[in-house]
Amino acid sequence: MALVSILPRMSRHPAVSISGNADLASKARVLAWWEKYLVGPSSGQFGANVKPHLKIISIGTFAEHGRDVFEIEHEAVVSEAFLNCNNVMHGGCTAFIMDVCTTSVLFPFSEQRMNVSLNLDVIYHAPAPLGTRLHIVSTSVALNKRVLTLSCEIYDADRGTLLATGKHMKMYP
């Protein structure tokens, strides 16, 4: 009986609109952390002009080699805020997007602890000019007690071209 009484509220929750097979609670946790820490009030913070362009489109989970893997997909369109002097997405912007999107993979887990980047390796494969629709796929690789390893791939959503790949290692200080 109690379950029936909460269903109408759940159906109006923004997490319902996110695709992917992750449970609704995990999706809600990701959206709550995303809004609070990554897209919310950010006046004066680094990347404040880039973060609002990033949208979560899918939150999924699957088993691989006996472990649970989370995968979050984002999308964005390259705007003027992303560009370098050659009118393509700046490498620093690419790294920033990877940092933010891979960190979101940690949000499904109920225990949130402060973590910091230990290393972020980015390989640039192709340029992304103004107007390019980005498809960003971030995945948990290994989440240990102290070190967290995440991966990211950024694609041109319309051409299917791989633009950049990265590995992000984070740690609990």
CATH superfamily, by name, is Hotdog Thioesterase
Evaluate the radius of gyration.
17 Å
CATH class: Alpha Beta
Whole-number average pLDDT? 86
SSE series: HHEEHEEEE
Strand content: 35-45%
The helix content is 10-25%
Walk me through what this model shows:
23% of the residues lie in helices and 35% in strands. With 173 residues, it is of the alpha+beta class. It has a single domain (18-171), classed as Hotdog Thioesterase (Thiol Ester Dehydrase, Chain A), CATH 3.10.129.10. It has a six-stranded antiparallel β-sheet, covered by helices on one side. The chain starts with a helix and ends with a strand. It holds the Pfam family 4HBT. This is Thioesterase domain-containing protein. Residues 86-161 form the Thioesterase domain.
Short account of what is shown:
With 173 residues, the protein is of the alpha+beta class. It has 3 helices and 6 strands; from the N terminus they run H-H-E-E-H-E-E-E-E.
